[in-house]
Amino acid sequence: MSSIMKVNAAIQFDGQWFIARCLDLPVTTQGESIEEAKANLKEAVELYVETWGKDELEQNAAEPELAKVDVSI
After folding, report:
1. Residues with Cβ < 8 Å from 32, sequence gap 6 or more?
2. What does the pLDDT look like over 48-68, one tens digit per residue?
3. Contacts of 33 (CB under 8 A, 6+ apart)
4. pTM of whole model > 0.70?
């Protein structure tokens, strides 16, 4: 029996692709649209969990703290 769990994601446009990053797991993908990037991320996260197990997802999935950080460049 499968269950539904929400994961946190950040999606940014890089000028050509929408890059979708899971903030809870080391999973990143892309798409030509936001919808495609989300669908690709959903599939990639499901494959990650299928490969590595659900325990890691449940331990890592939490509300992220997003912050802007000043860096010297």
Report:
1. 17, 18
2. 989 987 776 656 566 777 888
3. 18
4. yes
User: CA nearest 41: which of 6, 72, 70?
Assistant: 6
Q: How far apart are CA 18 and CA 56, in angstroms?
A: 26
> CA-to-CA distance for 24 and 37, rounded, in angstroms?
16
Residues in the chain: 73
H-helix or E-strand spanning residue 61: none
The token pair at 39 is 């669908």
DSSP state of 70: -
Cβ–Cβ < 8 Å for 57, 46: no
The H-or-E segment that residue 8 falls in is none
Strand runs (DSSP E) across the chain, as ranges? 9-13, 18-22, 28-31
Residue 32 has pLDDT above 80, yes or no: yes
